[in-house]
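[Amino acid chain]
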Amino acid sequence: MSETRTPTRYRKLVIHQATGDFRSSTSVVDEAWRDPGSGEVLIRNEYAGCNAIFDKNLCRNAVRYVDVQPPFDMGVEAVGKIVAVGTGVTEWREGDCVAATRLGSGYREYQIAAASKPIKVRDATAEILALIPSGISAMVGLERIGEVTAGDTVAVSAAAGGLGHFVVQLAKLHGCHVIGITGSDDKLAVLRELGVDRPINYRREDLREVLAREYPRGLDVAYDSVGGEIFDTFVDHVAFRGRVVVSGHTSDFDQEIEFVPQPRAYRKLYWKSASIRGFQNQAFPEFFAEAAARILDLYYQGRLRALVDPTPFTGLDQVADAVEYLLAGKNAGKVVVKLR
């Protein structure tokens, strides 16, 4: 390790008990040092991405494909620099900047990864962290699941968020008319700067009335990560052969399942030949590498902005603050934690 003296221990964040609340479930602990083995690289994390809903669901042991057994390592994505390589590794050098995405590797000062896993980037910045994986999710969800085409009318919920602001920009790059939905007047200006054609604060305007009056033909693609009444509205206003992409349901993810008396979905979709399509990025790994290359290229060309929320969170001891801030819906752009 040429850039830093080898420590004997380093810090990481773990779930020590699954209380359902992030702050009381997690604690910062020391991890014994280990040098990278054959085919591995050692990364010093610079920034970690906050994924508050996923994090809280882990603290509830409510992620269907993960069995949380404390102590459980936390954090998904990080950017940093390679500080050591194991034997047999020829494609990386000390000092290379990388983005890495793997459960349990984000909320920690150092991580060891298989040499084939990191993505090479020009700089280990917060903006790159916003792109990978949130920008990738936006691209795959919009293009592969939503099957967006030029001229489509696209509606995006939580449009100023870490995911939504990428969906908005990618839809505009595809030549679409974009409706951006937010719950804050402050974020309307952000949406206009991103090129949104019709920004809507759903707390001040009736979303159903706006869509019925201004978009009687309906929505070709509705990209929803909020759920609840916004999802219901999207389904009711989907166009002929339209697609509603479900990329989360932040409005009620930690609540009891709500049973809503209304016509079954097929009555709303059949005569329109429309569809509802669920999307989680990790379910489509075959698209990750190609989307990562394209999303970075768009950013490096200056054709895509990566919004990072300006509220500073520094160190593992402030991860809980970042999670609570994001859960409160205060953010505009990606919430990141500076680790160094």
